[in-house]
Every structure is written in C-alpha cells, then in structure tokens.
Design goal:
Four copies of one chain form a homotetramer.
Chain A: H1 4-19, H2 26-33, H3 37-43, H4 47-65, H5 79-92, H6 94-98, H7 100-106, H8 108-134, H9 143-166, H10 172-187, H11 193-198, H12 201-214
Helix pairs in contact in A: 1-2, 4-5, 4-8, 5-10, 7-8, 8-9, 9-10, 10-12
Chain B binds a DNA duplex (21 and 21 nucleotides) through helix 3.
DNA sequence: CATGAATGAGCTTTCATTCAT
DNA sequence: GATGAATGAAAGCTCATTCAT
C-alpha cells in the first residue's frame, strides 16, 4: 500500500503521461486524487520537485533492473529481453522523454537531473558495447565511432515515440513494439556473424514484425 | 528589407529558439519588436498561426534546397553536402523539433502540419534510399528494414540536439557538427564498398572530427 | 442607387439585426462591405453615430408612412393595415428594440434619441386613441387609464419579439404575425360594438390565426 | 452574514443592475468587493456561471413566494398583493429583463435558463387565468385569446421598465408603481362585474395613482 | 497532517479609434 | 475620398503558490 506522497507521484505520472506535464496543473493532480492543494504542497515544495522525484524514481527502477554484464564473462547480450523490459519502464515515464526540451527550459533542476541521467546511461551503454566488442559479438570500431553509436542508441531509444505518433501509429502496443524494432534494426549492422548467431536478434525482429502485422 | 509581418516571424523564430515557443508570450514578441499587441494580432489570427506560418516557411525553404536525385541517373549521393546544408536550415527552426510534443498537444493545426511534414520527408528519404540501393551504393535490404532505417534516420535527424545539449556540448557549432556526425556514422554500416569509395562519407567524418577537435 | 454612406448604414442594420449591435464590430461592417475601416470613420465619427443615423432613418420612414387621422373626419382606424405595415418597418430595425437597454447604457446620444422617439410615438398614439373615442370606436376612459393603455400598447408593440423568441417560435414570419396578434388582441376589449363592426379587427385576428396554423 | 460566494453574487447583482451585466467586467466585481480575480474564479467557472446562479436564485425566490391558487377553491385572486410582491423581487434582478436580448446572444446557457423560466411562468399564468374564468372572475375567452392575453401579460410584466426609463420617470419607486399599474390596467377589461367587485383591482389602481401623485 | 480560500502576476485575444499616406 | 497599419486599454480567464485555520 502506498503512502499519500507516493500516491501523488503515481497520479502525477499518469496525468503527465496522458495530458502532458506542462498542461497538467497542480489542481488537476489534487482533484484526481481527491486531496487538497495545500496538502500536495505539504509533501512537495513545488511542481518542479514532483518532476524531480518522478525522475529519481524512474532512474532507480531502471538501475534496479539493469544488471551489468560481468567484465570477464563471455555472454552474448540479449537485446530483445533487455529492450522489451526497458521499454516497459520507460513507457511509464514517457512524458520525461517527450517533453524534455520544455521541461529543462522551465525547470533548472530537472535539467540537472536529466543531464546526470544521460551521463549514467551513456557510461552503461559504453561499457556494454565495449564488452560485446571484446568478446566478438559486436564489430570492432574506434573510440570516436563508439561515441556516436552510443549517442545514436540513446537518441533513438528516447525519441522514437514522437516519430510514431506523427506517423499515425495510434495503437500504443504497436508503437512500443516499433520502438524496440527501431533499436534492434539499429543494432543489426554492428553485429558480427557470431553476434547474430548467438543473440536472438534476427528472430526477435521477425517475432515483433509478425506480432505487429497481426495487430490492427 | 523585411516587412513588419516578416519581422514578426523573424523575431518569433528567434525567441522561440532561445526561450521556447511555449514560454514565449505574444507580449514578449511585441516588446522585442517595439510594436503593440494589437498590431501583432492585425497580422496573425493567434499564436498558433504564427507557428504554422513559421513551419510553412521552414518547409518551403527546405523544399527549395532539396533537389531530388534523378531516378534513371547513376549518382552517388553526397551526404555531407546535403546534411550540412539541411542542418543549417533546421537549426534556424530548432524549436520545432525540440518542443514537438508540447506543440502538438497545445495546437491541433500544428500537429496536422507536422504530421504532413513527416509524411513528405519519409517519402523523399525512402525514394533516395531505394535509388542508392538500385545503383549499388547502399546494401540491399527488405522493405521492412528499409522502413525502420528511414524511421531511424528521421529520429536521429530531428532529435540529435537535445542529446548534445544534455551532454554539456554548449558550443552551437560543435553541436551542429555532432548532429551531422550522428547521421554520417548512422549511414556508414549500410554503405557498400562502392558507396564508401564514391561518396566522401569517411572523409567527411574525418573532416568534421578534426574541426571539432580544434573547437573548444 | 445608394451612396457609400447609405451602404454602410444598410449593411450595419443587417448585421446589427442578425448578430446584435453590441456584438458587431466596425471591422465586421467593413469586411462585409469590402471597404476599409478608415473609410467608415471618414463617414461616421464613431459607432454611436452609425446607430444614431440608423435610428433617424427608422423614425423618418415610420413618420412618412404614418398618416395621421384627420381630427374632424369620422373614420374607423384600420389597425390591421396599420400594424402590419408598421411591423414591417420595425422588423427591419429590430435590434433597436431588442438591445435597447444595452444601447442606452453604452451610448448616451442613443438614449436621447430613443427618449425623443418614445415621446413622439406616445403623442401620436394618444391623439389616435382620443380621436377613436370621440367618434365612438373606442370605449371612453379617463385620462389616466388612457395614459396606461398607451404605455401598454407601446410596451407590447416594441417588446413582443423577445417573448416569442424565448417561446421557441423560430419562424420569422410567424413571429411577426404573433406580434400583430398581440396588439390586435390587446385592442379588442377596448373597442365598442361599433368599433368592432366597422373595423376589421376580429376578421384580421381570424385571418392571421389561420395563416399561422398553416405555417409550420 | 453572507459568505464570500454570496457576496460575489450580491455585488454582481448590484453592478449588473446599475451598469449592465454586459458592461460589468469580472474585475469590476472584484474591485468593488476588494478581492482578487483569482478568488472570484475560485467560486465561479466563468461570468456565465455567475449569471446562471443569479437567475436560479431569482427563480427560487420567486417560486417560494408564488403560492398557486387551489383548483377547487373559489377565490378571487388578489392581483395587487401578488404583483406588488412580485415586482419587488423582479426589481432586484431587473438586468435579467432589461438585457435579455444581449444576454441570450452572449451566453447560450443563460438562453436555456431564460427559455425554461418563460415556460414555467406561462404555465402558472395560464393555470391562474383558467381558474379565474371557471369561477367567473374573468370573462370567458377561447384558447387562442387566452394564449395571447398570457403573452401580453408576460411582455408587459417583464418589459414595462424600459418604457418608463425612456419616459423620464426617474424615481425608482414611482417607476415600480407604474409597472404595477400597467398590469392592473391591462387586467381591468378582462374582469367580470363579479371580478371587479370581489378583487380590489379598482381600489388598488386608485391607491397607486394617489401615491404616485404625491411623489415627485 | 490536512484543508481550501486567497493571491496576483500573467496569458491570449478583442476592438474602437487614429492617422500617415 | 480611401486605405489599412498601428495603437493600447481592457476583457475573460489560468495557475503555481501561500497561509491561516
């Protein structure tokens, strides 16, 4: 059972995702919860803090789920499993990605938090790619290329949704599968023969495509 | 010399890019220009119309610059030249990409316009990729993969900036070069040997990297 | 053929009647006419003056139509003919009656004009009723009763429409016939036997009722 | 002691009656009360709602005062008492009658409310007149005539004031007495001998006339 | 802890009117 | 005569935030 403070966070996330964080008023949140505005401000200094706390929650959940590959152990990374799970999390906080630009403009502390988040994710990703290269699952590439592949991964991984929204893909589930496909297809050309054989990347692509074809 | 209406557009673009379109009020625009509010509304029905007109200006400038490859002529596409020019344009209207999610939430007609824009760009890109495949510059791939490569191109092409902003890349010029590099690196693995030889893709990457290293 | 000034008046009347004088902007009038705002203000000092001129036009048309009964000649007054014609005129200027209260609040000179108009009409009506009493068409009554019968005639004569609008009588023609019936029925109990015989009041009522029953 | 919400209503009524509802801004109301704009909007969604609430208040007060005559009981209706009391109420909300046309143009929900009010009042009046006819206080008349007598009663009953304003009757009290006289005189010719004897209609007229003569 | 009334700056938009050309 | 750009006060309304209870 969640406390009042947690309930405010949960309701805020829901409203931010559906109506947009910028468009959602504090009153809105309170009405939805059936609490008073004063009460919300007892738990949170201001709207910015709500967003910050949401972001922290998001990061900690993501961190809990992400089990780093062991530096010394030779394992092919299961992209499908990882991305599907990650997308699940990310989708629950999608307003953070969608409204990024406006949020960092309006709330300086949100900017700081997001900057920190990008840094962390970039390190994790860099570590993972290096590991997969070392064990021959990913094609070797120089440091600079690595940097940009990492950047591209993160850009696609965080901004795929607005593209599919504008492409009239109205089904939420399909949209999310497309997001995973965006990333799987993105990885494909960087995989070695061994990589393709030992991860289930191609099979995952086929599977998601089939699922999507069966969805209206 | 530009007319009052054009000046409103120019000032709006400038303010939208620096402060955000959502955060910029009609009064801000008027104050910046030294005109009265009534005068702004003499030229534009409402704020939405200003954004729409800006978007149309952006699309027409982009269209004027984009010369489609001839279906029957065998030419290697000059990505560097194209992307550099395109980024130049896009950068002048970057609020459109950065605030996309909030803009389409607040202004229905902007949503329609952006949807239309995505459709057009996707068609052009699909056409270009097919052409380059036919003449052996790009590796062959099935329709579905093409669809997602196109999607990824557009996602990276429109959302690279927010990544570099959050990665503390404060220099505008460097940021823009990074955007081009994002796309060049993205293209690289899809190019055939012939493609790499006859386009200047690798040289362009080297050139931009060097330029960036020389910039603080 | 009417001059520019007359055309402004005509268009204003039309718009005032359909959209309301308070809701109709000067721009509205100009757009409808295809002239510039400045040009309208060349002919009229301000919006108030337009209304004043309309009111004068209304009064003069009404005066031209109203041929006073001769003091010495014994004639039964034809209420039906008179009212039908009068309603025709009044209907063309109905905003004057409907928006009376707001117009006199907003425009002091309109108030003066309307006060004058009421005075004139009251005199004409008083004269008519006295004449009809003298020749035995109307029942005799004391001065004070006369005053209030006159007042009631004018109230009904000017305010019937809002009642029928609120009673869901949407057909314009029917509404106007109802207005005439309001007044004919109002007169009925004041008529003498001779009055009822020599005017066509009862027949007019029957005629209008029949017409109305045949209209949807 | 009245609450803040009630005070807003009271002040609004006062300002609407003196300056007109259309001319009175929400800021006016707040300034008059010494409260902030935000506070007014805390209690009322918008200006329309204020008017609606005022109308409901008016209708409920009127309803509480109106005790319907018993269908089976033979009683002469006391027009004077009834009208004097009713005028008292109506006068406190006179902007509703005076600005009717503009109010229904500007506020759709006010239109609905007023239409409903007209319907209710018409039913009550019809019922009353039928009752008085059945017991011989009012002269018999056919359905159609009844309909128009009812209409005329309501027109005079709601629109007398604008007439007396335009007739330079500046004294509020006198104006209100005139309104009652308008209706009493209107009823007079429809009364039977019995009706005139058993109601105090004629005496009431005399009384009011005398009172008015004594007022400047 | 919890309420909800209160604030006030600020937003978008409207419109009668003016005036240089 | 005619144009239409320009003005600016004012309208209705929103919303994050505060604070007495």
């Amino acid at each position: 059972m969640s406390s009042r403070k947690e309930k405010i966070i949960e309701t805020s996330i829901e409203l931010f995702n559906t109506k947009g964080a910028i468009n959602t008023t504090t009153r809105h949140i309170c009405d939805e919860l059936g609490i008073s505005v004063g009460n919300l401000y007892y738990y949170f200094k201001n709207k910015e803090e709500i967003i910050i706390v949401i972001y922290q929650k998001f990061m900690s959940e993501l961190g809990a789920h992400f089990t780093a590959v062991d530096e010394k152990v030779d394992t092919a990374f299961d992209y499908y499993k990882f991305l599907t799970a990650q997308m699940e999390y990310e989708y629950q906080y999608r307003f953070l990605r969608l409204e990024m630009a406006n949020l960092i403009q309006a709330y300086p502390k949100v900017r700081e938090a997001l900057e920190f988040g990008v840094k962390i994710k970039m390190q994790q990703l860099t570590y993972l790619y290096k590991h997969q290269m070392n064990f021959g699952y990913l094609k070797k590439m120089d440091e600079q290329e690595q940097e940009f592949i990492t950047a591209n991964t993160m850009i696609i991984g965080s901004q795929w949704e607005i593209y599919w929204i504008l492409s009239h893909c109205e089904n939420e589930l399909k949209r999310r599968r497309n997001g995973v496909l965006n990333l799987l297809y993105f990885m494909k050309p960087y995989m070695t023969k061994k990589g393709l054989e030992e991860t289930n990347l191609l099979e995952s692509i086929d599977f998601l495509q089939k699922e999507n074809n069966e969805t209206v």
